Amino acid sequence: MKKVLLLGDSIRMGYDEYVKDILRGKCEVYYDDADNGRFAAYTLWQVNQLFVKYGRFDVVHWNNGYWDMNIEAPMTEAIHPLDEYVHFLKRIIREIRRNGAEIIFATTTPILSGGSTLDNTGTGVKINYSNDWVVSYNNAAKKLAAEENITVNDLYTLMLQDKNYYKCEDMLHLTDEGYRLCAEQAAKLILEKLEK
Length: 196
Known about the structure:
This is SGNH/GDSL hydrolase family protein. Residues 81-181 form the SGNH hydrolase-type esterase domain. The protein is built from seven helices and seven strands; from the N terminus they run E-H-E-H-E-H-H-E-E-E-H-E-H-H. It is of the alpha/beta class. The chain has one domain (3-194): SGNH hydrolase (Rossmann fold, 3-Layer(aba) Sandwich), CATH 3.40.50.1110. Strand 1, helix 1 and strand 2 (28-30) form a beta-alpha-beta unit.
């Protein structure tokens, strides 16, 4: 059976089980259910560990963004300023291609207004957010995806369907309905890749 890997931050952790349920019987879906991909350099390390553990994949669906753009006090700039973000995205792309997998990159979901909240996966990290940052990082990632001929799962636009962008109380993560919609769109794109 074909194998799919889901990579990404806590947003991925909100929809990964739904994707697995939707694709049950069609492919095997893998993800790190104990940890999220955090920022792109961490995802680079994590994907290598997952390749060592599980071998070759047919499709990797992946996102990074919120952690990369986060300005975590007392720091005064993002964990990964845009040029570093793109640098690490390129390295992740190279590793996924070395594994032989097709790639789907998912954009970061929109923000209603600037603020901050604790990461909801137990890391204890406070994530700061602004939609201006999201737009800039998404634009850089989409430009790279176009250059690299990578399919983009536009979760940003998908979440705009709701006036509150399917945000839960912390205004960063999503409601259950939002996660289910993300899962449906991700599963559709994954199946399209698997059927090629």
